[in-house]
Design a protein that fits this description.
The protein has about 325 residues and is an alpha/beta fold. It contains eight helices and 15 strands. A seven-stranded mixed sheet has the order 9-8-7-10-13-15-14, with helices on both faces. Helix 1 packs across helix 2 and helix 3 packs parallel to helix 4.
């Protein structure tokens, strides 16, 4: 297949996807969504539209191309994406899930970019499509965030491994009595604070706490929460953490420690992006556990294993 035929192949798939997704997004009042989700093995990409911004991530693979050929291939993909999505190249941001170090050919894809404000369900969020591997708003959790909003009225809500605090914003918008947002990164915590402020949630009832979640959960407290969002990384060995986090090995401990901090009947919304994750139900001291994955993965995600989510209820 010639390079031009390959470009046509990608263009045709993008046009097909966008025809459906534009109508769907308009019906759902969604302006940030996944346009292409690794649909074809020849193009292992995730392409996300964040209003006027397009974010492209290449999945790690053995592509067999030398660096020059690979950079040319990326150029041709971005040319097609720019044309079909009617987005100028300066508003397209390219990321590598597995960067090859020291290759000058990739410099043209690397740039520092400004922040942008995008909307989701009448709320606003700051994204940064250039400076970090992720933008600041995980699109696969759009439905989970909406669910948290619906559960939050008059609740004390705890958001652990909070990243940029999107769940805290939704909880506040749902009428939470108070939110506690916990993350180890000052950068992300400050970002979370700005997201809360952007939506008018700047009172003292919305607390930001910089802490190693593992250590914090192991520290006794009399404080209790009615609803907790627990969305930990798959693996973390940050120097600032007390130990190494492995979600498959440690999830029962994490959930049991969190359950100790819940009010009677309190709900934990637990999620993980680890593809091979197996929940150890027998080890978790909960009154009820429900798999919600099928209900929380949005229609624009072709990969139905993008995350697993669970409803975990305290006794």
């Amino acid at each position: 297949m010639s390079p031009e035929q390959k470009k046509d192949m990608l263009a045709n798939r993008l046009r097909k996807n966008i025809r459906h997704l534009r109508k769907w997004a308009a019906r759902q009042n969604v302006s940030c969504y996944r346009v292409y989700d690794n649909d074809m093995p020849e193009f292992p990409l995730a392409i996300d539209r964040y209003e006027k911004i397009v974010h492209v991530a290449e999945y790690a693979r053995e592509h067999g191309m030398d660096p020059d050929a690979h950079a040319d291939w990326l150029d041709s993909c971005l040319e097609v994406i720019s044309d079909v999505l009617e987005t100028p190249s300066e508003l397209i941001f390219m990321k590598f899930r597995q960067r090859q170090k020291g290759l000058q050919q990739y410099e043209r894809f690397n740039r520092v970019g400004a922040e942008y404000i995008v909307r989701e369900n009448n709320l606003q969020f700051i994204i940064n499509p250039a400076d970090y591997l992720d933008t600041g708003l995980f699109l696969d959790h759009r439905l989970t965030r909406k669910m948290v909003q619906g559960l939050s009225a008059d609740k004390r809500v705890l958001n652990l491994f909070a990243y940029t605090g999107a769940f805290s914003v939704y909880a506040a918008a749902g009428g939470a009595r108070a939110t506690t947002t916990v993350d180890m990164s000052n950068t992300y915590l400050e970002w979370a604070g700005r997201n809360l402020n952007l939506n008018g949630f700047n009172g003292t009832e919305h607390r930001l706490l910089q802490a190693d979640v593992l250590q914090w959960l192991d520290t006794p407290t009399a404080e209790r929460w009615d609803l907790t969002i627990l969305d930990p990384p798959t693996f973390s060995n940050s120097k600032r953490m007390r130990g190494v986090l492995d979600i498959q090995r440690d999830h029962a401990w994490l959930l049991n420690q969190t359950l100790r901090r819940m009010t009677p009947g309190g709900i934990i919304v637990f999620s993980t992006n680890f593809r091979q994750f197996k929940l150890d139900r027998a080890a978790i001291r909960a009154a009820e556990i429900r798999d919600m994955s099928a209900q929380t993965i949005p229609e624009d995600f072709r990969n139905k294993k993008i995350h697993q989510s669970f409803w975990v209820q305290a006794h």
